[in-house]
Amino acid sequence: MNAVAAAKIRNNPHFQELVAKRSRLGWILSAIMLGLYYAFILVIAFAPQALAVPVAQGSVITVGIPIGIALILVSFALTGIYVHKANTEFDRLTQAIRDGAAHDGAFVGRAAVRGGV
Amino acid sequence: MKLRQRLLLTLGAWGVCGTAWADALTGQTEKQAVNVHAIVMFLLFVAATLGITYWASKRTRTTSDFYTAGGGITGFQNGLAIAGDYMSAASFLGISALVFTSGFDGLIYSIGFLVGWPIILFLIAERLRNLGRYTFADVASYRLQQKPIRSLAAVGSLATVALYLIAQMVGAGQLIKLLFGLDYNIAVILVGVLMILYVTFGGMLATTWVQIIKAVLLLSGASFMALAALWHFGFSPEAMFAKAVEVHAKHEAIMAPGTLVSDPISAISLGLALMFGTAGLPHILMRFFTVADAKEARKSVFYATGFIGYFYILTFIIGFGAITLVATNPQYLDGAGKLIGGGNMAAVHLAHAVGGNLFLGFISAVAFATILAVVAGLALAGASAVSHDLYANVFRRGKVNEAQEMKVSKIATIVLGILAIGLGILFEKQNIAFMVGLAFAIAASANFPIILLSMFWKGLTTRGAFWGGAIGLGVSVVLVVLSPTVWVDVLGNAKAIFPYSYPALFSMAAAFIGCWLFSITDHSVSAEAEREAFEAQFVRSQTGIGAEGAVAH
Q1: CA-based nearest distance B275→chain A, Å
Q2: Which pTM does this prediction carry?
Q3: DSSP code per residue over B298-341
């Protein structure tokens, strides 16, 4: 892709919307994931007894176990949220950008790419 | 029971025991009586995978077929294959063993191994697919000078692959000796030869299907074990945990965090290495180029995260199942009340306890298949670093035809296979506990920073990437050598010079600072051109416009 074609796409409002929305979602979800994981690790390092509390009176199951399992499920759920947003909204925007670029003749085909990588 | 013996198998996971993941496949095992069920089932697996390799060889003609299966793998298939790559025999046996001995602590490691995947999805998976073709060096060198960046990326890849491969080969030899009753050297040669056959003839297509089959077998086997263990307690987790607390020597302590993660520096450093090391492993990154586009790449990570998370929940149940069903049965214990075959045999004994000799044979065959799938992926990643990065782009400066590059990649695979066999035999009696930890440290400190910055930071120049990556590589190697895992455990010194077992916090910081410092002080004309080229790269990384299309199979 040459600089002119790139600049044209970069100025496309769809492109700016895509980049802004996708970056925001990506960083928010990353922050949630890192925040939860490090909160878990720091509780283990500094206050492990907090996870040793039973979930109910007389139960041997501690709160640590559902919290740990929940972290695994949350990791998967967060990837699901991202993929859902990306498959719908982000892919629509990407298609609009591609259509615009193809219309402008700025689309760079396979042949040009071989040298580019 | 064919595993009757008293010896220590520490085919632990990296990620397990006091020195944490370092505890890779160390320790000695004794040769067992020949296990007929296991060998028959393993031969079935080998026959099926060689059949697939033959089928794949008919479809592997171009370099694109060889490195990436022509980009024709679907997101779901690739998700399974990634899970197959990531769920090693060490993590299956090692994490269930850690749960068996320490309970809750096993869950802490499982979570550490998993949380890197969402981050890979949110920040790098799609960009990687949009920019790269065969190797992660394609992405790192996209707008930078080919020769220095590809050379550095190839060194980082080969170092990671070699360390990982040696650990797998030694682990394979020990495990097979124990489970199948085969001689160590024969086991290592067998693994090496099969790996060469899969990769040279079937390329990425065969490797992918070996990983998919193995993932399905491992997930089914582990599901059956977990369900069978729960069935003994009327599917009541409460009843199973209560029984485990009653019979385990540590009683209630197994339900809460123990002593595995004690000081915050080690905890944070380990967390960084686990998370970002995964995002710098060449054989994992290569899997993103096997799918058609960014959409399939993101679906791959979604499915992979689901399968890997499910697998870790199963290993947790299997570990507790082993406490209740294996540790209480004298059939599986030696005179001192320890597990026959060592702590890492918890899942294997549980297989026998819930499914008899036939299921034990199945799980043993699956463990062997697991190692084969992982080494095939490693060999392909190593071969592509040699043929695509070093030979085609550095040595021949891109002036090379498909046939020549294919030939070099096949020669590289054979050489890597022979080297892996040789090193596997050479390291049989060595303490190699540090190797996987070092591989992750190098991946997180040398490979990951240049991939991330090349995609996210306009200011990165060739000089910055080269020196930053080289510093990350050097610092991680030096700190691991000076750490307790090598300085004390391998070299036998009394006290480690570097007090932490995990260098990632320090080596990653050094790499990022190096990339930044050597980039901003780079005022050359070429550096300016590289900064300007960021815009076109950014547009392609976001939209995929210009990325090569896929060839459907």
Answers
A1: 10
A2: 0.89
A3: HHHHHHHHHHHHHHHHHHHHHHHHHHHHTTT-GGGB-TTSPBTT
